[in-house]
Please model this.
Amino acid sequence: MEEVSENLIAIRKRDVSKANEAFADLMSLTEKCLNDKVKLDHTLYKKCSGVKMEPVALAALREVAPQTPFRPDEIQLVSGAKFPDIQAEKYYGVEVKTTSSNSWKSVGSSIVESTRIEDVSMIYMFFAKLGGEYAEFRCKPYEKCLDNISLTHQPRYQIDMELDEKNMENIFQKMKIDYNTFRVMDEKPKIQKVKQYFRSVAKPGQEMAWWIGDADSESSVPMTIRFLNDLTVGEKKQMTVRMFILFPEIFGTNGSIKYKRAALWLCSRHSLICSNIRDFFTAGGQVLEIGTNRLEHPVPQVVKRLYDDREDILALLKHPDEALIDDIGEMWSLECSPKYYVDCWMNMMQRVFDVNDALKGILIKDIFEKY
Model:
């Protein structure tokens, strides 16, 4: 076939959109080339999983390149742990993925893209499905086949090459942000954007976004799971203080849900498991005295614990750290400036007390001032 006379770089200087169309053509031809070869020999490429598929993709790209403005010798495998795997004419890239299952789904690359080649502005996914009767190939714009985000040792995209056929949104449509806007964000706001999305879709009281934050974040999650009861007395108190601040429903009457969010928070934010979280708060039965004051009727022991922790609660509300601000933004049902955390929390707690027959008539301010 006659080669295209004008190279890609010359076209790009004149019209970037035309160059992008040429790249789409290159990928479409590559997909067809490999699938046509497999139709003639069903045994081809069945054992080319992982990095063995990269030279196959490279060879196919170079084979069809003369039908496009791309020059074969300007399509190269990238050395080292770089993203994407193949660079073409400086500005274009191909990420190679394979799966040994009979599915068009797989786990993709890191959302951070810290190893992305700086000059590459457009990427296609080259996907090889090897688990069926014979190998099959599909090539699509990178962002259009990223279905979701999951966490291994770092946040990674989930690939689904059939999103278009299923008429489903990709992860960027779900997050309501353009891929090219998202990818150039700094790591911290990028992670925050993802957190916000998962918080918005989590089932209230049943799910909570779990995330390993960046290394310098105060709210990063420990990599080992522990039992709450194995913490020191001081560590347990820190956790209790934060739970009193974040989850007023602990003092409510709905026994089926009052501890659920607190249990999820312990696990998702601090990698702590508490198999007896109800007992953790209710142990000790009821009390008739708080501080130096004798009450008119017995109240749950947890109210005395609230009183005992009052100074730490107020100190943290008045001087919140980054982790608490982040948690309050998610856990509280109202928006509140840190300047008003104390007043907002007092009001939320009072509303819970007022609808609990066992606590009705007790003023939360009295617990923190009078008693």
Q: What stands out?
A: Confidence is low (pLDDT under 50) at residues 212-219.
